[in-house]
Structures are given as structure tokens and as C-alpha cells.
Amino acid sequence: MKPRVLAGLIGAGIQASRTPALHEQEGDAQGLRYLYRLIDLEPLQLDINALPDLLQAAEQMNFTGLNITYPCKQAILPLLDELSDEARGIGAVNTVVFKAGKRIGHNTDCLGFAEGFRRNLQDVVRRRVVQMGAGGAGAAVAHALLAEGVEHLSIFDVDASRAQDLADNLAHCFGPGRAQVGTHLENAMAEADGLVNTTPMGMAKLPGTPVPPALLHAQLWVAEIVYFPLETELLRNARALGCRTLDGGNMAVFQAVKAFELFSGVVPDAHRMLAHFQSMKS
Fold first, then answer.
1. How many CB atoms lie within 10 A of CB 271?
2. 94 is in an annotated binding site
3. Domain ranges, residue 258
């Protein structure tokens, strides 16, 4: 008998998320009873302080697991019983599986970003890269970038201590010298081969760009994790200059591929999930 899956996504401002449809349609294709629900903090008028109650409620209602997104990927860590090696190393969780009375945290964001990067930007120069943002998603992306051979990563964040914590974490995992807190964005951008945005800036509810357009240049490749809208202001400005780009849909799909497997125990069809996501483009 194939498993029944009841999953959900906890985050703020997630009404436009394509994740529920992505999971449910693949569940249908696999012949599973698969239900995926949004748990949006904004219309519920809740914040990260509600996480303990939400996790307990999900367990009591026999959820199989939960995806976790902004702003909860790091706040959820103390509420979990176990962490996968990836989640522990990155210091952020985007997938929680309820199993045998335990809450087990995983991180599929790192794998998701890396897969999209390999498929679309495999041949780019990766000597010096600027990353905007050092939150939960930023931590996962930074790990992926260094694992994919980026030689030097400059991390910029509105919270300098958070950027320093991430740089320290990366030094522990990858050795000293490969990541540092950025101090002068204009200089870093002038020397950069690539730019990655891991902040919420560019989302429909937070329009704008994390980097002034004047700092972009044609030799740059630009990657984004925001996917609603799929073409952010940053990507639009970059493409106008002729830059190679990677939209946020890639990370959204490939992190969901692994999360689907963790929830259901069934290996999904990644090509089919990517095609489904692309069919939902507005």
C-alpha cells in the first residue's frame, strides 16, 4: 500500500508559493494520496514565536512533515530532535520530517541550488563571487557555492554579525580564506565574476533590487533564489546587460524534489516536476 502524505509549508507571505501544486501533482503522478497545505504566518497574524505551537499542532494532526521558509529556517533549529549532516553543517533547516516520535531537520536548499547551478551555469568563471544575504537560505547557498568551486565569496548582509557567523561557519567547513564579510560593495562588484541574491528583496511583496543596477556589468553572471516573480528586477537589469542568469525557479524545484522523497519515501521524477513548474510560469 502506497503511503499517504500530509505535508505543509510554514513561512511568511507565501500565498503565491508554487510548492503545494508541485508536490501534489507529482503525488498524483506517483499514485499517492498527497496533500500539501500552506501555513502562512501573515494572514494568521503570527510570527516565529508561534513555531513551537505550530510544530506541536502538525504532529498532533499526523502531518508527515513540513517545509520551512523565510523567516523560520534558523529559528526552528532548537525545536528539533535531530539534524541531518547537511542541516547541521549549514545551520539552517527547510524540511522537517516527523518520524517515530521525533522531529528530524534536513536541508534540501543546498542541494537544490547546486543542481540548478550545475545545469545552467556549469561553465562560468567562479574566482570571486558576491552574495547578498546571510540568512537561512543564504547559508545553504553559500555552502553550495563553495562546494561548486567558488574560490572567494564576499558576503553582504544588513546584519553584520549574521554575515560574520556565516563566514565563520564556512571557514570551519571549507577552510579559512574562502569566505569573508563584504565591506565595500562597489569594489567587490567591480572584481566579481558572479552575484547571488539570497535576500527576499525582489519578491512581489518586497520589490526592488539588493544591488544598485549601476554596479552590474556585462561580464557578470547573476543567480537569484526569489521565484515569485520569476523575473526579478535584479534579473531584468542583468539580462539587459547581457549577463548569464539563473532564476529562482531552479532552486525551488530541485529542493522540492528531495523534500518529496523525504516525505514520501518515493523518488520523484525531477524532469516532470521541473516541467510542471515551468508550466505554472505567469
1. 9
2. yes
3. 4-106+252-279
pLDDT (average), residues 156-167: 97
Considering only CA atoms, give the Rg of the chain: 18
Summarize the confidence of residues 132-146 as an average pLDDT: 98
Sheet with 152-156, strands from edge to edge, namely 179-181, 152-156, 128-132, 194-197, 221-224, 244-246
Q: What is the average pLDDT score of the chain?
A: 96
Q: Is 45 marked as binding a ligand? A: no
pLDDT given at position 60: 97
Question: Which three-class secondary structure string do you get for 69-114?
Answer: CCCCCCCCHHHCCEECHHHHHHCCCCEEEEECCEEEEECCHHHHHH
**pTM value > 0.85:** yes
Give pLDDT, residue 122: 95
Residues contacting 63, CB < 8 A, separation 6+ = 6, 7, 8, 98
Same domain, 142 and 236: yes
Residue 201 and residue 205: Cα distance in Å, rounded? 9
69 annotated binding-site participant: yes
Q: Which residues are catalytic?
A: 73
The answer to whether residues 38 and 133 belong to one domain is: no
The C-alpha cell of 189 is what?
A: 562588484
Work out the number of other CB atoms within 10 angstroms of the CB of residue 205. 12
**Known binder of ligand: residue 109?**
yes
Q: Is 85 annotated as a binding residue?
A: yes
In a shared domain, residues 155 and 242: yes
Taking a C-beta distance cutoff of 8 angstroms, is the pair 162, 174 a contact?
A: no
At residue 120, the 3 state secondary structure works out as helix
